[in-house]
Amino acid sequence: MTLQLPVDQIDVYVLTNPEALYRTSSYYDELHVTNTVVRVRSQDTYGVGGAISWTEGGVDVALGNAIRHVAPSILGKDAVNREALYKIMANRCASMIPLSVAPLDIALWDLTAKAADLPLYQLLGGAKRSIPAYASTPFFFTIDEYLEKVAEYLDAGYRAIKFHTWCIPDKDLVLVDEMAKAFGDRDVTWMLDVEGRYDRTEALRVGKRLQELGYLWFEAPLGDSDLEGYQWLRRKLDIEIIPAGNEILSGGLIAQGISREAWDHLRVDATLAGGITGTRHIMSLAKAHGMQVELQSWGYSLSQAANLSLMLGMGNCRFFEQALPIEPMEYAATNPLRIDEEGNIVASDTPGLGVDMDWERVEREALFSYSLTERDL
């Protein structure tokens, strides 16, 4: 019998945890992290997806409003036909595409996996069941804070650390040298993310030092769009170079970067790049070129789960990014993701994403919400 899942209703909720305030460089004020949650209903079941936005100065409701202009295009259609629905949504005359497509697409995949009684990572291919996690630090104001927190992260079981820093070369170099002095005898994988804030000369200077210290990768040394700069930098360094993954989100533009040999590996986020479907296309492109896609999973639990499903399903990703502190990102979620004693994230056997929401709390605490049915068209 053919599986059919007509989309009957779409619910959209904009939420935030007042404690989800993060800094990722000295250039930013505290970032408010907003969680835009979508529930796609079909008959007696539903799928859920979420996407984050991070903004200075307050909560972001733009994404929730943008989804209002994309969601009607899939009402009444069969959720099983996800590629067809993705094409419909991605070609709407609406704002914030592909971001406004992402939570809808993720919810369609969650819905289909639940109906098939499969964890989503298995529906996506089931390449592996677990993945090492790295502790993704916030920005701290002092070296002493970094030293204290890194010790805590290592004691908690993380075996890889990625720094968010001042993004000022002189200060960042002091940090990596102090970390080497304090933890150089530990078996730790290190990465540095400087949010695209360096110029080419600064990136080369810091990259050479990271090479000497054995860092695995240098993330976002330049702005994502500076393909010539990345190409130049890669030719001068042996350390792996990857982009931030926040700006170049289409397969066509990424293909241009690959052809220029701009990066060693790719980086995107499923909640930015059009959801599971759009990111799956990018990961397949990378796989054809022998490249990893080091997915972002920095965000609330639903965003984490979507990216994790792709990591495990597709297989060409080496690490799960765990934003710390972790507790604010677990807001209103059930079954959030935590590392095991080996420092790994292990897949849930629950059908779908493996993460759901406390819907009573969502309904109660949403900053705004709306529902759409075919009657509203």
Automatic annotation (TrEMBL):
Gene3D superfamilies reported in the protein's UniProt record: Enolase-like C-terminal domain, Enolase-like, N-terminal domain
SUPFAM superfamilies linked to this entry: Enolase C-terminal domain-like, Enolase N-terminal domain-like
Lineage of source species: Bacteria, Bacillati, Actinomycetota, Actinomycetes, Actinomycetales
Protein's UniProt name: Mandelate racemase/muconate lactonizing enzyme C-terminal domain-containing protein
Stretches assigned to the Mandelate racemase/muconate lactonizing enzyme C-terminal domain: 143-240
Classification via CDD domains: MR_like
Pfam families xref list: MR_MLE_C, MR_MLE_N
Keywords: Lyase
UniProt-recorded Gene Ontology molecular function terms: lyase activity
Matching PANTHER family: D-GALACTONATE DEHYDRATASE, D-GALACTONATE DEHYDRATASE-RELATED
